[in-house]
Design brief:
Elements: H1 7-21, E1 25-36, E2 42-47, E3 52-57, H2 59-62, E4 74-84, E5 89-99, H3 104-118, E6 136-141, H4 146-158, E7 163-168, H5 176-188, E8 194-199, H6 213-221, E9 226-230, H7 238-242, E10 245-246, H8 250-257, H9 261-300, H10 302-367, E11 379-382, E12 385-386, E13 397-401, E14 406-410
Parallel strand pairs: 3-5, 6-7, 6-8, 8-9, 9-10
Antiparallel strand pairs: 1-2, 1-4, 2-3, 4-5, 11-12, 11-13, 13-14
Helix pairs in contact: 4-8, 5-6
Length: about 425
């Protein structure tokens, strides 16, 4: 019989052999069953079409990854084999992971770009309008970089009244993205007209701080309009997509946001001419309106109304005097004519009245009882009143009177003629 080992002894020997024999491995495969633990460690399986192996990437190494591990991604892993003695299992302890066929930075760039685009970071409707005339600008860049000098030179040439506030930050390296994001947040609270974030050209690694999500978040949440001016014209950073305006270079950024002084002078001259024309037009128009109001006021003023009323009263008085004069003359003429015709009229009137009187006297003499013939004439009286004989009825008593006699009679029979 050979030498007997305990399970622990066997696993210990296997652990020693494997970790010594596979202390450095470079393995290509497809990522599967990825788990991001709360501790910061990443657990996953690396596989090909025939086999698979467990892998772990501890927090320290995982924090240096430039891209996000995704299911099905083809990668190349560098690390070592470790054996977990209590279970006799082994796995790859990953020190670094690179995408197969492309660099990790390029993949990380595309992943973050796709993610932020889905979340609306690049939407045109959320981009803020830059002011036409700028008074205060914050420049977030390296105080020792050539980019700052370029921006200051352009600003001095184009717009000398500009106030510039420089935020000196790292623009490359491990802590650059954090400093840039903090500077953006700080400048956003100061009420600048525009914030310019930028640096000069460099490799993708040099410019990487402007591709970090922390910088994208700071730009996205800022209330101040932000211009991204990183690298050269061919360089496109994540900050370029999120910012309100992308400038191809730092110096171009200043040319884009600052008006040219000479152009301003020309613009001011044109404004002056327009202002003069508008003011002359308004002055002429207002003068006409004032004259109209003055005329209207004079027409409707108390003095004018009183004057009109006095004129009206004067006209009425004149008309009244004319009418009175006309009536007086007319009556005077009638009176004169009446005076001329009065004797004739009076004679005619007296003659007419005399004839009427004579006629009445004649009628009186002919109809009064004492002037009539006495034979056969008598009055019929009933109850002291002279009545017509036709009023009497059979049986009525009445009196027949003459100048000398009264006969009492009674109707016995009445006949009609």
């Amino acid at each position: 019989m050979g030498y007997r080992l305990t399970v622990s002894d066997l696993n210990e020997q296997i652990k020693h052999l494997m970790e010594e024999g596979f202390s450095s491995v470079l393995v290509e495969g497809e990522l599967s069953r990825i788990t991001f633990h709360n501790s910061g460690h990443i657990y996953f399986t690396l596989k090909d079409k025939d086999s698979s192996i467990s892998c772990v990437m501890f927090r320290g190494n995982a924090s240096r990854l430039k891209f996000r591990l995704e299911e099905g991604l083809q990668v190349i892993i560098s690390g070592s084999i470790t054996v977990y003695k209590p279970r006799g299992s082994y796995q790859i302890n990953c020190l670094n992971i690179e995408p197969s066929g492309q660099g990790s930075l390029a993949l990380a760039y595309e992943q973050l770009k796709e993610q932020l685009n889905k979340e609306g970071y690049f939407a045109s409707e959320r981009k803020k309008r830059l002011p036409k005339f700028v008074h205060k600008v914050a420049l977030i860049t390296s105080a020792t970089g050539a980019a700052l000098q370029d921006m200051l030179r352009v600003a001095q040439k184009r717009y000398r009244v500009l106030e510039m506030y420089i935020y000196d930050v790292l623009v490359q390296g491990e802590h650059a993205s954090f400093e840039i994001a903090q500077a953006i947040k700080s400048a956003d609270e100061k009420g600048y007209d525009i914030i310019v974030v930028g640096r000069g050209g460099g490799s993708l690694e040099d410019l990487w701080a402007f591709n970090e999500k922390i910088v994208a978040d700071a730009i996205f949440h800022a209330k101040t309009p932000i211009v991204s001016a990183v690298g050269h014209e061919i360089d496109w950073m994540i900050s370029d997509f999120v910012a309100d305006l992308r400038a191809p270079t730092p110096s171009a950024a200043m040319e884009m946001i600052l008006p040219d002084t000479n152009e301003l002078y020309m613009y001011i001259d044109s404004l002056y001419e327009q202002f003069t024309q508008v003011m002359m037009h308004k002055l002429h128009k207002n003068t006409q309106q004032l004259q109209h109001l003055q005329d209207s006021f004079e027409q409707h003023s108390v003095e004018k109304q009183l004057q009109l009323k006095l004129q009206y009263v004067s006209q009425l008085k004149e008309q009244f005097e004319k009418q009175i004069d006309f009536l007086l003359r007319k009556k005077e003429e009638e009176f004169i004519q009446f005076q001329r015709r009065y004797p004739e009229i009076l004679d005619n009137k007296l003659y007419s009245l005399s004839n009427q009187l004579q006629h009445l006297q004649t009628m009186l003499q002919s109809n009064h009882p004492k002037y009539k013939s006495k034979k056969g004439f008598a009055q019929t009286v009933q109850d002291g009143k002279i009545i017509d004989i036709a009023q009497l009825r059979v049986g009525d008593e009445f009196e027949v009177q003459t100048q000398k006699d009264i006969v009492v009679a009674k109707v016995i029979q009445k006949k009609e003629m």
